[in-house]
Design a protein that fits this description.
The chain has 164 residues and is α+β, with helices and mostly antiparallel strands. The longest helix has 27 residues, at 2-28. It is 16% helix and 52% strand. It is built from 1 helix and 10 strands. The protein has one helix spanning 2-28; strands spanning 36-40, 55-63, 66-74, 80-87, 90-98, 105-112, 115-122, 125-134, 140-148, 154-163. A 10-stranded antiparallel barrel has the order 1-2-3-4-5-6-7-8-9-10.
Length: 164
């Protein structure tokens, strides 16, 4: 009788372990190509005149069913910019906290394993759209953005980030 109980308990523990591992894998997959810390490579990037930042770094980590993105940059005039948001690739608007130059909400969709599209809005009006592509080797992340940011500046950017 005790052998049967032990066998049942062992089966339950193994089954629970598999559920936890598979659930973790499922949650990690939506943003696996853009997870980690990324630093702007200004030498490989192009910006509309006068809009290139002095520096920029962002970090993406799994947060529940989405990806928490934290961004820190220093604008050309020396102003520090910090923003945070949770990315859920379902096409719905999600709030951005901090002082994002692109808007107060962002909606993301996954195009393929390495490509994401984002639509930024300020007060419900589209400001900037971007296509973000992680390289197949996972070492670079390219953000191609167009529109007008919250400062009224033209955004026509190809920003290349290196994995840290």
């Amino acid at each position: 009788m005790q052998a049967r109980i032990r066998q049942t308990c062992l089966f339950a523990v193994v089954a629970l372990g598999l559920v936890v591992v598979l659930a973790g894998t499922t949650f990690a997959q939506p943003g696996s190509s853009n997870l980690g810390t990324w630093k702007l490579n200004l030498a490989k990037s192009t910006y509309a005149p006068g809009t290139a930042p002095r520096s920029a770094t962002f970090t993406n980590v799994v947060a529940g069913a989405g990806i928490k993105s934290t961004s820190d940059s220093v604008r050309a005039d020396g102003t520090a910019v910090h923003s945070e948001n949770t990315e859920v690739y379902d096409g719905k608007d999600y709030p951005i906290s901090g002082n994002s130059l692109n808007g107060d909400t962002v909606a993301g969709t996954r195009v393929d394993a390495n490509t994401l599209k984002f639509v930024y809005k300020k007060n419900g009006k589209i400001t900037v759209t971007s296509t973000n592509v992680a390289s197949s080797d996972g070492k670079t992340y390219t953000v191609t953005a167009k529109g007008t940011n919250t400062l009224g500046q033209t955004v026509n950017t190809v920003a290349v980030y290196d994995k840290q």
